[in-house]
Amino acid sequence: MLRITDEIVLQDWELAESFVRSSGPGGQNVNKVSTAVELRFEAERSPNLPAEVKARLRRLAGWRWSGEGALIVTAETHRSQAMNRVEARDKLRDLILRALERPKPRRATRPTLGSVRRRLDAKARRGVVKAGRGPVDDDV
After folding, report:
1. Residues 43-52: what's their mean pLDDT?
2. How far apart are the first and last CA of the chain?
3. How high does pLDDT run on average in the chain?
4. In sequence order, which residues have a C-beta less than 8 Å from that of residue 81 and are 6 or more positions away?
5. What average pLDDT does range 135-140 have in this prediction?
6. In 3D, which of 15, 9, 14, 35 has the Cα closest to residue 24?
7. Which residues touch 4 (CB under 8 Å, ≥6 apart)?
8. Measured between alpha carbons, how far is 73 from 59 in angstroms, rounded to an integer?
């Protein structure tokens, strides 16, 4: 069981852990011991998340979202399996908490009259500078 907030608690059947060998340096230990954790969360089938949160979670997850609707989180920074398990669960919790935040709606605004005038004045000044460039007369 993984508690996200007071209202959202993920059940054990929604989470599946598998252990694989880590990549990178580590000597003989990395070749023998499966310390990296792949935590699979069945997000699409989860009854604990509202549909809007699932949609935001899918967008946040990106390539970590599988075709079956599962979110796959990996952790392999630590040398011990237990610490990687905790890290994977923390990553999942943080991702879900970010998905719970509603984005602020964007309100279309217009530029102020002063900013439009300043922009056009700057363009005109720049045009004058560029117009002054060109071939030089040898008559002078």
Report:
1. 86
2. 88
3. 88
4. 19, 33, 34, 35, 37
5. 76
6. 35
7. 10, 93, 96, 97, 100
8. 15
